[in-house]
Amino acid sequence: MSLTAIDPFLVAVVLLNFFLLGTGRLKALIFAVALQGAILGIIYPLAHQGIHPSGSNVVSLRLLALAAAMIVIKAGVMPRMLVYAMREANVSWRIDPYIGLTTSLLLGAVGTGLALVLSRTLPLRSEHASHLLVPASLSTVLTGFLVLTTRREALTQVLGYLVLENGIFIFGLLLVDALPLIVEVGVLLDLFVGVFVMGIIIHHVNRQFTASTSDHLSALKE
Amino acid sequence: MAELLVCLPVVWAALAFAVPSNRWRPWVLPAGGLVQLVLATQALQQTKLTGWDNWLNLDPLGKVFLGLISVLFFLCACYAPGYLAQRSQRNNRVLCACLMLSLAMMTLIILSHHLGLMWVAMEATTLISAPGLYFNHNPRSLEATWKYLLICSVGIALALLGSLFLAYAALHGGLQTSLLFDDLVRQAPQLSRPWLHAAFVFLFVGYGTKMGLAPMHTWKPDAYGEAPGMIGALLAGGLTNCAFLCILRFVHIANAAHDVQFAHRMMVFVGLFSMGVGAVFMVRQRDFKRMLAYSSVEHMGILVLGIGIGGAATWAALLHTINNAMTKGILFLSAGNIHRAYETKLTADVRGVLRRLPLSGWLFLLGFLAITGSPPFAPFVSEFSLLAAAFRQGRFIEGALFAIMLLVVFIGFGATVTSMVFGEPSPAAESTTIRDSLATCWPIVGFALLVLVLGVYLPPPLATLLREAAAFLENSS
Predict the structure, then answer these.
(1) How far apart, in whole angstroms, are the C-alpha atoms of residue B252 and residue B327?
(2) Residue A220 domain flag
């Protein structure tokens, strides 16, 4: 089994990116980000098996446990935590971006195209021959960045950050042998704590203001 | 010993969390800081210090930063009891615990020779310093904390991508993939060039965000403006320097790969740009704490400019990390005293500090003179050395721009500070209850003495340490 086995999942991830950029509903955005996290949790053991030189069954119990933890945290716990943080205020479940959904979608498409072109300059080893992995990674990072910078609500900014981390994780699949499990768990923990702290702050924002748009978070300027 | 340096502050943090009394809890901080300082002094004298199966390693470059962080934290921790006594209506449990934890994480960053562990510690410091930023619990500090968390987390995420690119550069070169610093340095000549360049771009942007280089500095004015003075001093002198160390690790790898030109060019450009942004925004700044933030942006620019020029300028930049951190200690702590006494941060409303708060006022004035590069203070020595090194290497344009921007900063900063410290304080300011006390002033005097002494006399052990660190970085030891 080679790395190309995960290509269908990468296609799904990139399609989800476009969905993220184009949706105007907060609940759909949360669901899509959770789904993306779940797909990545599924890809993880597949990629590990695809890369290992012997190609034989190297999926250990530790690996499966980590994949399961990833799915639970990314698709279950974190979205639920963010929805809970929003509960208190009169929050509008409609997304209100600075640059318009069509423009974001176009920017995402252009970015994905650029990612495909840029990936040609970054050579991959023969056993990692996957035309989709690096472009998918860069495209997801760009999507996360776009969602983060062009949306008003604090919650969507956190979701953008989650998508950014997803993009980085996709690239990390190339290095499943290199990154010792300790660091992967550390990264996951950091992500969890980061979103937790952000959730707390959104909660405080809700309490201070009536709606948690970061328009209210724009009093500080020159 | 290395494990102790990292784990002991965590124990102190747990202790701080457990102490029930809001009045006595702040005293854990100076106690923990003193123990850490003693341990660090012992560690600096050892030639080889490793731990956790070589994931921790105190190298010459790390020694400079370890000494710096330990002294900075100790003096800021000594300021804490006096400060928190004045803010006694606020519960300081989370703050004290987070401060000790941030010491642990900063020490971990300095000692870590595994780039993944270093990254995790860096992310942890961002999260741990957030409660400190939000200590004032008002809408402005909430906004500042949000911006800080978001921008710094994005930066560090990009740094993670860069670290992964670097690991892949090793894998592509047919080497044993490893994020261990020593392995990467040893294998550096065989690293794949395109991946190495892409890695450095992401790493520099990512850790540069945490350092506060322009144009990724937008969190700094808000964060330093709203944070308490003590937190501002730790951020400006501690965390930004740890981010600088992370960038230096990658410059070291590029040096070992004999492919450092692109890195140097990027650093010179961003350094000069940061100095320019700092200089421009400091003029006519209406909030004196935000002004200090732009001063920090400017000095971070000076640091990367020095490394980018290379040669003797590397030594000057390393000396400047120490001088800048100590001077920022003076400035932020005295600005905190002024803010509390006048109950405003606007420069238009602050007059006559020298009359209202004589000691803090003098220290603030001294801090301004020091940070803008006046002799006999320490930053003059490091900035002059940098300028001399630049000219000696024929970098006339960079040197000239450097000098011009220092002048602009002096004018902008000077206009604000002189209008603040001289004159008569308003009746409203005279009637507030906060006065200069020994507890909130002696740590600032400590910083000032260090800055003065280092400006006049560079102790030979320190000079040797800096020389070894510079040689280590340039890979010529």
Answers:
(1) 27
(2) no
In a domain, A159, yes or no: yes
Longest dimension (CA), chain A: 60
Residue with structure tokens 């390393």? Answer: B318
* Cα distance between residue B119 and residue A187, in whole Å: 9
Among B152, B161, B181, B222, pick the best mutation site for testing chain A contact (most A Cβ within 10 A): B161
Which residue of chain A comes nearest to B286, CA vs CA?
A222
Q: Write the pLDDT tens digit of every residue in A114-139.
A: 998 988 888 887 777 777 889 999 99
Alpha-carbon distances, residue A125 vs A2, A135, B73, B198 (angstroms): 12, 15, 46, 17
| SS3 per-residue string spanning B309-358 | HCCHHHHHHHHHHHHHHHHHHHHHHHHHHHHHHHCCCEHHHCCCHHHHCH
Residue A50 lies in a domain: yes
Q: Cα A27 from chain centroid?
A: 16
Q: What is the pLDDT of residues A28-52, one digit of tens each?
A: 888 899 999 999 888 888 877 766 6
How many domains does chain A contain in total?
Answer: 1
Q: Who's near B54: CB < 8 A, 6+ residues apart? A: B113, B180, B182
- Extract the tokens encoding B204: 């520099």
* B139-172 and B193-211 helices, crossing angle to 10°: 160
Q: In chain B, what residues touch A177 (CB-CB under 8 Å)?
A: 177
Q: Could you give the ipTM of this predicted complex?
A: 0.86
Name the residue of chain B whose CA is nearest to A126's CA.
Answer: B172
A134 and A124 in contact (C-beta within 8 Å)? Answer: yes
Give the predicted TM-score (pTM) of the model. 0.91
Which ranges constitute the DSSP H helices of B239-287? 240-256, 261-282
Contact A178 B194 (CB under 8 A): no
Q: Would you say residue A173 lies in a domain?
A: yes
Domain ranges, residue A142: 3-215
